[in-house]
Amino acid sequence: MIRTLPAFAGHRLDRADPIRADAARLAELARADARLLLLEGLIPRLDHEQHLQWGRLGEAEGEVVFLGLLDGEPLFAAVPDKGDPDPAYTRRETFTALRVLQPDELALYGGARSLLDWHARHRFCPQCGGPTAMAKGGWERDCGQCGAQQFPRTDPVTIMLIEHEKRVLLGRNARFPGRSYSALAGFVEPGETIEEAVAREVFEEAGVRVRDVSYIASQPWPFPSQLMIACHGHADHDALTIDTTELEDAQWFTRNEVEEAFANPDEARFVPPFPLAVAHHMLRWWLEREP
Ligand SMILES: [Zn+2]
Predict the structure, then answer these.
(1) pLDDT for 206-235, tens place per residue?
(2) 165 C-alpha to ligand 1 centroid (Å)
(3) How confident is the model over 19-75, as pLDDT tens digits?
(4) Rounded distance from Cα 67 to ligand 1 centre (Å)
(5) pTM listed for this prediction
(6) If you measure from the C-alpha of residue 228 to the centroid of ligand 1, how many angstroms do you get, rounded to a whole number?
(7) Does residue 13 contact residue 30 with C-beta atoms inside 8 Å?
(8) Do residues 241 and 205 touch, judged by C-beta distance below 8 A?
(9) Residues lining ligand 1 (ion), CB within 5 A?
(10) What is the distance in A from the centroid of ligand 1 to the CA of 125?
């Protein structure tokens, strides 16, 4: 297991599930002066001390979700008109905020963001096309026409460090900044276990057969709503056959090269993943293991 806490993990909220289903209790908590997370669309607003900014529920327009209780106090957030169509972490304002927020606030923001984005994108029923309405304080949407229930989704993604004779396999996507390499990753497909998804992705992208896959850690990733499942595995061989439609390059790196990448990225063989990414924590975990 990794010892460091990945970004977007470690929220302090009591999700207060019984309150979500209790309309009377929820109405009681939803007072005009209750705390409302302030956002521009889905971008967090920060105060001058770099904390999340809060307004009052009375200022909210449209649908509002109940995030949970923080130290006994209810927190709410309003659904924006639109979800975020871009890979939003690439937006400078979002990215700047992510870099300065404290871990517990980052986790609170990430969870709220995924939930709000899901509501903004699920105003119509996937079964009959009828309009849906929020239920259970924002942790469900129901179709007014056919009654189908929808729940906020989380998409599992495997991300893996594959090892062969004390070297680790890292790849780069064409849209990565120059010289950046990271762990290979891919969505779990229907009908697959986590272990099978890891083996398939590595074989598809790098032509490497993988065995002995084990779980390391997980990270909620709110762009829009993935659960990154970090794994480790061993390769049977080091010959690579790279699928260039997926990866621009993949290479094996030694322990010394990974250490050097963290210590001196400008001169190392590659630039490691940034601290917000679980791959950063995975590589540090790998360095700390017994070789
Ligand atoms: Zn419907």
Answers:
(1) 999 999 999 999 999 999 999 999 999 999
(2) 54
(3) 999 999 999 999 999 999 999 989 999 999 999 999 999 999 999 999 999 999 999
(4) 25
(5) 0.94
(6) 31
(7) no
(8) no
(9) 125, 127-128, 130, 143, 145-146, 148
(10) 5
